[in-house]
Specification:
By secondary structure, this protein is of the alpha/beta class. Helices cover 35% and strands 23% of the residues. It has a 6-stranded mixed β-sheet with strand order 6-7-8-3-9-10, with helices on both faces. Strands 2-1-4-5 form a 4-stranded antiparallel β-sheet, covered by helices on one side. The longest helix has 18 residues. The structure holds adenosine-5'-diphosphate and magnesium ion (MG).
Length: 292
């Protein structure tokens, strides 16, 4: 399980080796292979990242601040240009087709949408107006959009209560729900969700992850979520990738990661035996078995 993420090592859980006779096993909805990202032409930030999201899966990218989680999501949704970043190597496929050169709006049309870190609702629009902005790429008309809106209100009762409030005056948790709800309005097959827990109280984080799980179960939408909150992410994801300085250093089913000693020590703050002390923190580099 501790092998680095290369495409050939995939398949611990979500891509079982089906016998050839199986009825057409679905390929992954997202496949990122050996992707390298450079900012400003010189700053190498992602150094060969590979990962997969199975159809209908919830997969987490874990790692500390600066590890490259946001860069990975933006590489997928083609939002790096605005940051003067560029994918310089590797391939990205969505639903079996290369998407490396598609614009973000074309990607949304195909069903892949990102919810940016920091929520980004339009503060001067109401919650409902915010939600409706998410439907602008849809070709299927008003009635269908209305139905989606009602579905979202069923999943997010808080948004229904707040539908006429200006988003700028709602709580952080409500804004995060609004951002996810707006993404759902595009009728996506996959949502890239960047740090949904950021700055929110633990019970609100839990509420948001429960919503992610409900959307996944109800609509079959796949999720790739970037999280520093490892404990929470591993409760809801089925599979995780640990990213450090632009490399996947560990990946595996969520359960295996939760039980992994290194993950416990470095990301869950549960050192075996003794309490974590500064001395342990200082030995961090030396003890990282996966980088040895
Ligand atoms: N626009 C940018 N220009 C240059 N470096 C950047 C830019 N955005 C991010 N970085 C650098 O890339 C690395 C990864 O950042 P990021 O993907 O935001 O990590 P994370 O989301 O895991 O916190 C960090 O070292 C960060 O300083
Ligand atoms: Mg980030």
């Amino acid at each position: 399980m501790s092998s680095p993420a290369h495409a050939q090592n995939r398949g611990l859980e979500h891509a079982p080796a089906h016998p050839v006779t199986d009825a057409a096993p679905a390929g992954p909805i997202l496949a990122v292979s050996n992707v390298e990202v450079v900012y400003d032409h010189v700053i190498l930030v992602l150094k060969g990242v590979s990962l997969e999201v199975p159809q209908g899966g919830i997969v987490a990218i874990l790692g500390a601040n600066g590890a490259g989680k946001t860069t990975t999501l933006k590489a997928i949704s083609n939002l790096l240009k605005a940051e003067r970043g560029e994918v310089t190597k590797g391939t990205i496929s969505f639903a079996g087709e290369r998407i490396d050169r598609l614009s973000p709006s074309e990607l949304v049309r195909r069903g892949c949408i990102q919810v940016l870190e920091g929520r980004h609702c339009f503060g001067h629009l109401t919650i409902e107006e915010n939600l409706l902005t998410g439907a602008f790429t849809r070709p299927d008309g008003r009635a269908a959009v209305r139905r989606s809106l009602e579905e979202i209100y069923e999943t997010f009762p808080r948004l229904k209560q707040r539908r006429t409030s200006l988003a700028g005056y709602t709580s952080g948790g409500e804004q995060q729900m609004c951002a996810i709800g707006r993404a759902m309005m595009s009728n996506p097959r996959m949502i890239l969700l960047d740090e949904p827990s950021m700055g929110l109280a633990p019970h609100i984080v839990e509420e948001i992850f429960e919503i992610v799980r409900a959307l996944n179960a109800r609509s079959g939408v796949s999720f790739l979520l970037a999280e520093q909150n490892t404990a929470m992410a591993l409760r809801y994801a089925t599979y995780g990738y640990v990213l450090e300085t632009g490399r996947v250093v560990l990946d595996g089913p969520a359960k295996a990661l939760r039980e992994n000693e290194d993950v416990k020590e470095f990301y869950l703050g549960m050192a075996e035996g003794a309490q974590k002390s500064f001395r342990n923190v200082k030995s961090y580099k030396r003890r990282k078995r996966w980088l040895a």
